């Protein structure tokens, strides 16, 4: 009888041990884990989260103190600092996700560097409110587990079995992906620079591919976004000479498609931008015109402007490619560019039936023009005696510009319009041909309000200037898909 009781006791103890092991490795001494080297302590996707204390938690309405107590629940760690603007912008969304999923998930704000007193001091008199989420502060030990650049968002997901499923950027966390994981579906996660090799400009891309057994077949070649190499920011280097082999190398790792085309048409794009006073679309697309079904194939810029849309990692990587060109030094730059353009059009042609190149395009725009041949603007010799000062005229706020480029003065007045882009892009061109700096008084940006062009025109008339709505034929970099049909 005693042997039977002993058997069942051993069986129960074994089951308890196995259940605990499913969540995390057992650590008798919490500090022993942190005494390991930085490399040994760092956790990656697929590792188990150790059963360690949460640490100093502010607003801990969960009542829990260790990671093992969250078995069966998705835990999301949102690493942040008070000087990370992107981190702060994301907090309302993290609070919304917590409310949406309720008890199925638990989001923790994790500040690896600052104490609660330091956080309070930073936000004192700022009007900023932290979301209603538990916040782990001064979490230096947590940083050893998940090292990341301070001042940048970093997210970690730990599933209900204690397995680290996501370690990535702010683009890794969104509603539909959480639903997929909770439903037991396979999720995609774009890695970031914290968990991948750092871009090394000394190493040709094909050498890195060889290390990862990625097949390469040409001296110039493409791959889609590489999730194992500089996954978030990518890298770019051009004109690297190898005297031993007599070659020149251009390498683009995880860069947007339009950046590759822009590298070929620098002079044309600079000429285009020299005429532009205002463009409140994505700056990376300035000088580009798209006749395509989906701009996400070429740039993430348009999508990033729409704050009401869900920004997903799959969208972010869609336009990003890796390209490397290795050519003999004997080739001229013009010949090298010709080869690259053929490569780009061949690659995107195969994917989407697309071609890129310079074309004259008629586009609707606004133009700053002269209304009289008489020069009514006081021009100045360029120098350091410039001034910009606010003034008040009849109770209205103006800005007096002295010895500044005309384009700069107009752009400054329209700063609010530039900083708050709308769904449709606005292009304002300078057709005045003023070369010298000028003296001019214009309304303060706040005075322009909801109708900036109309109010600005009244101030421009005395100077013999006007802003007109028009259409211009301009040389632009055009990306065109052959089966594209413009919407009716």
Description:
The protein has 488 residues and is of the alpha+beta class. The chain has a domain at 22-182: Glutaredoxin (3-Layer(aba) Sandwich). It is 31% helix and 27% strand. The chain contains 17 helices and 19 strands. It has helices spanning 2-23, 30-34, 38-41, 85-101, 116-123, 140-145, 175-182, 205-211, 257-264, 266-273, 301-305, 313-318, 333-352, 406-413, 415-419, 445-448, 452-460, and strands at 57-58, 74-79, 105-110, 135-136, 154-158, 164-168, 220-224, 235-242, 247-256, 276-279, 288-291, 320-328, 354-370, 378-380, 387-393, 396-404, 427-430, 437-443, 465-481. The chain has a six-stranded mixed beta sheet with strand order 1-4-3-2-5-6, with helices on one face. Helix 4 links the parallel strand 2 and strand 3. The radius of gyration is 29 Å and the shape is globular. The model is unreliable at 4-40 (pLDDT under 50).
Q: How many individual β-strands?
A: 19
What number is the mean pLDDT? 84
Fraction in helix: 25-40%
Q: Decide which structural class fits the backbone.
A: alpha+beta
Provide the gyration radius in Å.
29 Å
Number of helices: 17
Instruction: State the shape.
Output: globular
Biggest sheet statistics: 6 strands, mixed
| CATH homologous superfamily (4th level) name of the domain at 22-182 | Glutaredoxin
According to CATH, what is the topology of the domain at 22-182? Glutaredoxin
Distance between the termini: 87 Å
Flag low-confidence runs.
Answer: 4-40
Strand order of the largest sheet: 1-4-3-2-5-6
This entry's quaternary arrangement is single chain
Strand content: 25-35%
For this structure, what is the CATH class of the domain at 22-182?
Answer: Alpha Beta
Any idea what the CATH architecture of the domain at 22-182 is?
3-Layer(aba) Sandwich
GO molecular function, one term: antioxidant activity
Protein name: Thiol-disulfide isomerase or thioredoxin
Domain Thioredoxin: 43-183
Subcellular location: Cell envelope
């Amino acid at each position: 009888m005693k042997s039977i009781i002993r058997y069942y006791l051993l069986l129960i103890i074994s089951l308890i041990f196995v259940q605990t092991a499913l969540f995390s490795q057992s650590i008798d001494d919490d500090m022993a884990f942190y005494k390991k080297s930085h490399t040994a302590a760092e956790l990656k996707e697929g590792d188990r989260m150790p059963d360690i204390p949460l640490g100093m938690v502010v607003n801990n309405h969960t009542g829990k103190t260790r990671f093992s107590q969250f078995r069966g629940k998705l835990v999301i760690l949102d690493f942040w600092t008070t000087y990370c603007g992107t981190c702060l912008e994301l907090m309302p969304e993290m609070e919304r996700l917590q409310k949406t999923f309720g008890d199925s998930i638990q989001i923790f704000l994790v500040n690896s560097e600052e104490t609660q007193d330091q956080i309070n001091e930073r936000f004192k008199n700022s009007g900023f409110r932290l979301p209603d989420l538990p916040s782990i502060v001064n979490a230096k030990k947590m940083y050893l587990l998940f090292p990341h650049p301070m001042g940048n968002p970093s997210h970690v997901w730990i599933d209900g079995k204690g397995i680290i499923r996501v370690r990535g950027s702010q683009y890794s966390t969104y509603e539909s992906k959480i639903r997929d994981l909770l439903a037991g579906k396979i999720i995609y996660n774009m890695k970031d620079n914290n968990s991948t090799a750092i871009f090394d400009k000394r190493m040709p891309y094909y050498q890195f591919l060889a290390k990862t057994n990625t097949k390469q077949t040409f001296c110039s070649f493409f791959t889609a976004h590489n999730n194992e190499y500089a996954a978030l920011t990518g890298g770019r280097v051009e004109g690297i000479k190898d005297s031993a082999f007599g070659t020149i190398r251009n390498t683009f790792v995880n860069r947007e498609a339009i950046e590759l085309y822009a590298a070929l048409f620098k002079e044309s794009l600079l000429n285009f931008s020299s005429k532009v006073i205002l463009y409140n679309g994505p700056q990376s697309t300035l000088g580009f015109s798209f006749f395509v079904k989906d701009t996400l194939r070429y740039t993430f810029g348009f999508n990033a402007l729409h704050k009401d849309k869900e920004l997903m990692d799959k969208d972010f990587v869609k336009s990003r490619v890796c390209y490397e060109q290795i050519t003999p030094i004997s080739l001229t730059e013009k010949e090298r560019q010709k080869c690259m353009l053929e490569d780009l059009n061949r690659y995107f042609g195969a994917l989407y039936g697309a071609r890129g190149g310079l074309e004259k395009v008629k586009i609707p725009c606004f133009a700053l023009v002269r209304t009289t041949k008489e020069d009514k603007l006081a021009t100045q010799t360029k120098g350091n005696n410039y001034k910009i000062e606010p003034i008040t005229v009849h109770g209205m706020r103006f800005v007096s510009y002295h010895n500044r480029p005309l384009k700069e003065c107009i752009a400054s007045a329209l700063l609010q319009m530039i900083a708050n882009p709308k769904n449709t892009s606005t292009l304002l061109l300078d057709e005045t041909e003023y070369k010298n700096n000028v003296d001019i008084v214009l309304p303060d940006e706040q005075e322009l309000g909801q109708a900036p062009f109309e109010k600005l025109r009244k101030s421009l008339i005395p100077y013999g200037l006007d802003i007109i709505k028009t259409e211009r034929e301009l040389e632009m970099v055009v990306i065109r898909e052959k089966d594209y049909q413009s919407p009716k």
